[in-house]
Each structure stands twice: as structure tokens, then as C-alpha cells.
Amino acid sequence: MPRPVKKATAAAVRSPAQQAENFRRSRHDRALETAQDYVEAIADLTVARGEARVVDLARRLGVTHVTVNRTLARLQKSGFVNTEPYRAIFLTGTGEKLAAECKRRHETVVSFLRSLGISERIAELDAEGIEHHVSPETLAAFERLLKKR
Predict the structure, then answer these.
(1) What is the pLDDT of residues 91-102, one digit of tens each?
(2) Cβ pair 54, 72 in contact under 8 A
(3) pTM exceeding the 0.85 threshold for the entire prediction
């Protein structure tokens, strides 16, 4: 008995080069999301404690100190942080700018979700994911709506 012929899905129609580009983009986006989380946490720790240390970042982000050290090495290569062994971690001007943008985006998303009647706890949890993926256009719409209230 012959097998039914399946229709090609959109993924099956994409060329290997297109699929590779999609995966590269996805990896880049995840790396940027990690960078954003780290610079935001470093900025928060610096304000709260006067410095950010590996152990503090590991605790705050729920990862090991090995993960923090590896990520900090990448962030230093990207120009977001300055680090020295056994010393505090400092944001560069570029890192400070990214941290401020992340904080503003996070606060906007939380405020928007709260304006919909979502509890503070859930708004904070949801904003942690949304803030990294919301487009500038959507974020601007959130801000316009919030100003009208």
C-alpha cells in the first residue's frame, strides 16, 4: 500500500543556507539576551552593593561561578565589561548604556503588564522574557499607552 504524500512544510522548503542563517540568528539573539541579563545584573549590584563580584552574579543569575567567568570573558571581548581576577566587575561606557536600555525596557514592559491588571510577581516574571524580544515598535506603543493613563 503506498504511503500518503506529505505536503512540504515551510521549514522543508528553506534552503540549507537559509536554515543555517536562521540558526545563526537564533544563537546571536540568545547571546545578546545573556549579555543584557548580565549587564543589567552588574548595574543593579553596583548600585546596591557598590560593586559586582562573580559570586554575587552567580547567585543572582542562578548559575555557577564557572558560567559567570566564561560569560564575563565574552562580555569583555565584546566591550561591555572590564574585569580582573579576584576583583570587582565594572561596566564600560557601552555596558552602562546597554544596562540603562535594558532597565528602561524592563520597567516599560512591567508597567504595561501591570496596567493590564497582572500581579506584580507575574508581571516581573513575564517581563524577564518579553523584554528581550519586544520590538522597538511594540515597546514604543507600550510607552504611548502608558503615557495616556
Answers:
(1) 999 999 999 999
(2) yes
(3) no
User: For residues 20 and 65, is the Cβ–Cβ distance under 8 A?
Assistant: no
C-alpha cell at 73: 570573558
CA angle 24, 26, 28 (to 5 degrees): 70
Q: CA-to-CA distance for 91 and 83, rounded, in angstroms?
A: 9
Are the C-beta atoms of 79 and 92 separated by less than 8 Å?
Answer: yes
- Only one residue has cell 536600555, namely 101
Please provide residue 91's backbone torsions phi and psi, each rounded to the nearest 5 degrees. Answer: -80, 140
Q: With H, G, I as helix, E, B as strand and everything else as coil, classify residue 83.
A: coil
Q: Which residue has the cell 500581579?
A: 119
